[in-house]
Description:
It contains seven helices and 18 strands. The chain has 333 residues and is of the alpha+beta class. Helix 5 packs antiparallel against helix 7. The chain starts with 8 loop residues before the first helix and ends with a strand.
Amino acid sequence: MTKDNHIPEALLEEAMDWFLELKARPNCRDTEAQFRAWLGRSELHVRSWQTALKTWQLLGEVPPVHEHLWRGARPLASLQPATRRRDRRVAKVWATGAAVLALAACLVMFVSLPSLLLWWQADHVTETAQSRTIALEDGTIIEMGGGSAIATEVSAHARHVRLLKGEAFFNVARDLSRPFVVDAGGVEVSVLGTAFDVQLASADTTVELAHGTVAVSYSGPDHKQNFELAPGETATVTHATGAVTRSAIAPDEIGAWRSGKMFVNNVTVAAAAERLQRYHSAWIAIPQSRLAQQRVTGVYDLKDPDHALQALVQPFGGTVRAVTSYGRVLTQF
């Protein structure tokens, strides 16, 4: 773990814990008093708090538009013996932190509500870097990748699965009377009995076919698509335009996440990082659009996501900056 100006990692983690605690209890005087006491212990504590604030800024937070709500907040009380200059510096840190906390409080519902709704809909979920195998009552086996969620519905007349987030590999039991349908972001994959992988990203849906035949359809606001895939083919449907990109895929690349690998073919750094996010406990941000839109092809190790991130951006002169254990920022110089 990279340290910021020789600040101990444990202290950086304490600072981030305080950030989250203050965000959760914005009007708690006891929490505020305990935080002020912690902040006053040393110069390192102040610097670790500044780093915690910097983490949120680097991870894409917008300027504190609600700062005026905090202008009447009480300044930091006198800390342990220090110079006036240091007091002013600490007060400035608190003011900055308070503004960020105010914004975080206003944004927390927008950030958390979609996730809460997703998990509410799901029948099965996996955590970051966790895989899970689900056996449906019809004999179908579903292998779920990290950070994924599905909702299942199997009845006497139909079999339907919604991939709400992430990736899953389906080994579908053959049943001529009940087609098996997977819905992933509006892209429907219909089969009778076959094996295939489906990846749902924010911008597109990808289907990789191992064997059998699948019918793929997409009905967006302005775009419709209907086509079939043959074994050894992959197709990516772009949600915004309905455009379909098809190519051949080697058998060992289909659902390769099951063996700890991620294969990508001519995708953006942003798209590859989004997939890696499901296997990394820290938040990943790419503030530079130029780097985010670079395209990559290769295989990356999901068991070592930090190394995978570095391999992802290195060809473009990029680097991975660790801002405490909570965040990774990909930059290009």
